[in-house]
Design a protein that fits this description.
By secondary structure, the chain is mainly alpha-helical. It contains four helices and no strands.
Length: 223
């Protein structure tokens, strides 16, 4: 109730203000407009802050998801690395075994090659010895043929000259003895030749077996 009388004196002052130019009346509405302009600013500020908070929360959640995905990827990578290492260990063991087998096969191949070389040398020596025996056999045959011719000549001479029968018989006996010796030598040489040929055959068989073994050992080594 006390405020109403205060308003009344203000109304009394109003006629005094009417004498002033009309701009005063225009200023009154201008003074009333600024408050509504301040109200939208106060309303937009919480909206902006709320939007910023929402964006910040979404950004944090996105970064959190990315970090979680990265951690999961790292965990998966470590698990895969562990699995790969677990698979690699048997493979490495197999590689080591394969290397040892390859070295063992190479050693066997080298030994087989050395044995084949020795067998070839023995075969060459046996062939040389057989050639020598063949030459000796030919000479023995020539000597035996000469003794046979001399014996035939002695027989003819004994027939022509009865007076020389005893001498011819003696020569025949000597020639027969020499012939028997030559035949014995010839038989011995033939026996030696047979043994030599048998030895050559055995060496050739051993060489063929060694070469076959060498070829068998070289096949897995080439693979």
């Amino acid at each position: 109730m006390s405020e109403s009388p205060d308003i009344k004196p203000e109304k009394k002052v109003a006629p005094v203000q009417d004498k002033s130019p009309p701009e005063s009346t225009e200023q009154d509405p201008v003074d009333t407009n600024p408050p509504p302009q301040k109200q939208p600013k106060s309303v937009l500020l919480p909206i902006i802050l709320g939007s910023a908070c929402v964006i910040l929360v979404l950004t944090v959640l996105s970064l959190w998801n990315k970090v979680a995905a990265r951690d999961e990827a790292v965990m998966n990578g470590e698990n895969r690395l562990t699995q790969v290492q677990a698979r690699m260990d048997p493979l490495l063991a197999q590689v080591e075994d394969a290397k040892e087998n390859a070295l063992r096969l190479q050693k066997q191949i080298d030994e087989a090659k050395s044995g084949a070389i020795l067998l070839k040398n023995d075969l060459a020596k046996a062939r040389t010895a057989n050639t020598d025996l063949q030459s000796q056999l030919e000479r023995a045959r020539v000597i035996s043929t000469g003794f046979q011719m001399q014996m035939e000549e002695a027989k003819v001479a004994s027939i022509k000259s009865q007076g020389e029968v005893e001498l011819a018989q003696t020569q025949v006996v000597l020639l027969q003895a020499q012939l028997s010796k030559a035949e014995a030598d010839l038989g011995k040489l033939q026996t030696e030749q047979t043994d030599s040929l048998q030895q050559i055959t055995e060496l050739q068989a051993r060489l063929a077996k060694a070469e076959a073994e060498l070829a068998r050992l070289q096949k897995p080594a080439r693979r």
